[in-house]
Amino acid sequence: MGGATNCPETPRQKMIGMMYIVLTAMLALNVAADILNGFTMVETSLKESTKSSENRNLNLYARFQDSYNQNPTKVKEWLDRANDVKKQSDELFQKLQDLKVLIVKTADGEEGDVDHIEARDNLDASGRVGLDEGMGEGKKIKAAVDTYREKMKDYVKADTTKVNMIDKILNTGEMVGHDGSKQAWEVATFEMMPVAATITILTKMQSDVRSIEGEVVTYLKNMVDADDYRVNKIEAKVIPDSKYVMRGGRYHANIVLVASDSTQRPEVYIGGNPETGTGGTLVQDGIYDAVATATGDRKYSGYIRLSSPTGVKVYPFESDYNVGEPTAIISADRMNVFYAGIDNPVSISVPGVPASNISATMSGGTLRRDSKGWVVRPSKPGVPCVFNVSVKIDGKNQNMGSKTFRVKQLPPPVGFIPYVDDQGNPQKHKLGAIKKNLLMSVTEMRAELDDADIEAHYDVLSFEMNISGAMGAIVETSPNKNFTPRQKDLIKGMARNSKFFLSNIKAKGPDGVTRTLPPMEVILK
Predict the structure, then answer these.
(1) Mean pLDDT score of the chain
(2) Which residues are bridge partners to 316 per DSSP?
């Protein structure tokens, strides 16, 4: 498991170890394959977007260097700052990449490949790397992002629009958890998140780093000519809050001039003819809002009109953003099926959406929300539970998908005799020999499921005690869970190595079904 092999186990790891054998195979089935494929599609799209940003940035640095070659005295101060921005951006980008590699290797082993993740649905690796003692990479990467954010803000502190944009994109403040309480950023990012989801989140952060790098360097380059006649050096610039938008959400961008004349307000048009400065739709206050109705890459263009002493000048612009498919993660907390007649806990989440904005309905039973999450009580075996999840985005409900779970009848329990051993410890006798003196202190029969993952209470309704001897068979029936005085007398009169059977044991479970349990052999010693 990567670098964690020689580290002492934390309490959290010990707990995971206890549950691992029973739950690992079942947890692997909790996250639907189509959801994981959705994360992979988003990951691929984000990588393409990041590559485009890197190419634009390289071109920007090249033009910055050309300006320095033409006028070193004027440009040197700003080029030095731009080179520092590149250094810091590359360092944070690499830290994010190293963290992705560590998470994948923790999930897939030392041969793990970030570009070909095998255990995409692993719910443990991200938490171990991000939160466990000895690793705790979550707080480290948060500190690195915070340091980078403040340094980038300091470079553009004179431009409040860019400062606010950087704050919003690289926000690592507290988030709202599943139960409505606030969670630290690192907990919300790494705790019980599928590897595919965490890798996608980190890739988005890498994309944001390259985008912010371009914004800051563009600002620094334009500062070279800040004292010049601004109308002669104007550029149109599109500043989005984010280039990734969920379908049903809104894409929000600021369209401004990098160095504008403060005495007049430019006119911003979407569409139209940039060459002639005609047509298109006028954008109020330079704010472009568009509803994301379909997934995929979206491009738009337009122009800005600005009056100058020599006439009206037109500055064309173009930009793009990516719309992702909304995804809901619905997983049973214990296994990949529900059992009729009992409460079945289930987790419902949507990446990037607070739990308070998530709504869910279900057919085939009842669904309720409590302080710990969601609880399902199926109506009856064989009738599947079908979930439909929606979220509130911009005041509107948006469907996030559905999932179906099978419903099975509770398995039959087994009977046992509760007793206290010679050391005073509670025990359960289910098979074989038991000391006669210990058995004499027993008052009742009980029943339980052998499956520790299912919590279900059973009541013993009646049972029979069968003794075979030279005088024939003796059958003594108890009308409830308690041993009758007659049964206790029979046990008292039996010799060592004698045996009897408890049979025809009737028990009723929370589903209302009365079951006949397998007989028990009891040997006295």
Answers:
(1) 81
(2) 303
Predicted confidence band at 312 (pLDDT cuts at 50, 70, 90)?
confident
> Is 421:439 a contact under the CB 8 Å cutoff?
no
Dihedrals phi, psi of 215, to nearest 5 degrees: -65, -45
- What digits encode the pLDDT tens for the residues 230-283? 444 566 777 776 554 556 667 777 787 766 555 567 888 888 888 888 888 888
| Integer Rg of the chain from CA | 33
- CA–CA distance, 281 with 220 (Å, rounded to integer): 31
pLDDT tens digits, residue range 356-369? 888 899 999 999 98
What is the residue whose two structure tokens read 């692997």? Answer: 28
Sort 208 into a burial class: Cβ within 10 Å, 0-12 / 13-18 / 19+.
buried
Q: Which of 43-47, 90-94, 177-181, 365-369 has the lowest mean pLDDT?
A: 177-181
* Residue 309: predicted pLDDT: 47
Asked whether 314 and 321 are in contact (CB, 8 A), the reply is no
Return d(Cα 152, Cα 209) in angstroms, integer.
10
330 strand-pairing partners: 348
H or E stretch at 16: helix 11-27
pLDDT of residue 229: 39
What does DSSP say about strands 396-408 and 337-339: parallel, antiparallel, or unpaired? parallel
Are the C-beta atoms of residues 238 and 268 closer than 8 Å to each other?
no
What ranges in 170-290 are assigned the alpha helix state H? 185-190, 195-223
| Sequence-separated (6 or more) residues with CB below 8 Å from residue 257 | 234, 235, 236, 237, 266, 304, 306, 315
Distance CA 525, CA 507 (A): 28
Distance from C-alpha of 412 to C-alpha of 344, rounded to nearest angstrom: 18
CA torsion through residues 243, 190, 162, 79, sign: negative
What is the C-alpha to C-alpha distance for residues 206 and 46, in angstroms, rounded to an integer?
9
Which region among 51-65, 132-146, 160-174 has the lowest average model confidence (pLDDT)? 132-146
Rounded Cα distance, 225 and 366, in Å: 66
Per DSSP, the residues of 47-105 read: HHHHHHHHHHHHHHHHHHHHHHHH-HHHHHHHHHHHHHHHHHHHHHHHHHHHHHHHHHH
Report the range of poorest mean pLDDT among 126-140, 148-162, 204-218.
126-140
pTM: 0.41
Q: Is 105:118 a contact under the CB 8 Å cutoff?
A: no
SS3 120: coil
DSSP H or E run through 15:
helix 11-27
